[in-house]
Amino acid sequence: MTGAPAAPVALSRSRGVLHALLDAPGRRNAVTPELLDALHAAVDTAEADPGCRVLVLSARGEHFCAGTDLTAPVPEPAAGPAAGPEAELPYWTLLDRLTRTPVVTVALVEGRATAGGAGLAAACDLVLAGPGARFRLTEALVGLVPAMALPFVARRTGEQRAFTATLLAEDLDAPAAVAAGLADLHAGEPAQALRRTLVALSRVDRSTAGALKTYRSRLFPRDARLGQDAGRVFLDRLTDPAVQPLLDRIPTPERAV
């Protein structure tokens, strides 16, 4: 008899902070429906606690997040009033939510953030990169377009820098990621850097942080249909017969991009 599979995200709390640890290192913390559900639940938990100011995303293992698990079923649009062929995909809704929640979101990246994993980090308000951090958009290598991750990367790096990093599948270490704007801080001691960051964030109350994030979204608005368009572009490429031979080249144990 086997037990239930371990949760892909482990939650813990400290004063004013909810820590969400991506905890599926055997799957390289890849983006699966279960991971997305667990991260949405983490945001729910943070938002429901009026004393929570910060949500920290970190990961166990060598990979912060390896991107979309291609062995999982093709993602379906999120349920709700907008559900249908033009609805947003769950990955997009999570990234968009991380940018809009009144809770400050911090990504502590100590391993590889690849493809959708780089997008997950980029959607956070602050990105701290440890000495082993690497950031890479690999989708173009297998015929895909990082349609959902790219807007969140580009808002940090600028349009051309994000395009170049995607087209060349650049593998950015922590200093290069900071130079590109994809990360905010390169720290030799990530735990200490996180503590200093949390101390600084403790001086800003949640309502102020929320108001600042709301104003940022109004100051730099996204097209209201971008989420739907991004999902359609991603799925069109994922299901294109011409792309399948490229996807089939990915070794089965590592089918995440």
CATH top level assignment: Alpha Beta
Task: Supply the CATH architecture.
Answer: Alpha-Beta Complex
Q: Give the SSE order as H and E letters.
A: EEHEEHEEHEEHHEHEHHHH
CATH superfamily: 2-enoyl-CoA Hydratase, Chain A, domain 1
Tell me the helix content. Answer: 25-40%
Distance between the termini: 33 Å
Strand content: 15-25%
How many strand segments?
A: 10
Instruction: Figure out the total of helices.
Output: 10
| Biggest β-sheet strands, sense, barrel | 6 strands, mixed
Which fold name fills CATH's third level, the topology?
2-enoyl-CoA Hydratase, Chain A, domain 1
Give the neighbour order of strands across the main sheet. Answer: 1-2-3-5-7-10
Protein name: Polyketide biosynthesis enoyl-CoA hydratase PksH
Characterise this structure.
It is a single chain. This protein has 257 residues and is α/β, with parallel strands linked by helices. The radius of gyration is 17 Å and the shape is globular. It has one domain: Alpha-Beta Complex (2-enoyl-CoA Hydratase, Chain A, domain 1), CATH 3.90.226.10. It has helices spanning 33-48, 90-100, 116-122, 150-157, 159-167, 174-180, 190-201, 206-219, 226-238, 244-248, and strands at residues 9-14, 17-22, 54-59, 63-65, 104-109, 112-114, 126-129, 134-136, 172-173, 185-186. 40% of the residues lie in helices and 16% in strands. A hairpin with a 2-residue loop joins β1 (9-14) and β2. The chain contains 10 helices and 10 strands. Strands 1-2-3-5-7-10 form a 6-stranded mixed beta sheet, with helices on both faces. α3 (116-122) packs across α4 (150-157) and α4 crosses α5 (159-167). This is Polyketide biosynthesis enoyl-CoA hydratase PksH.
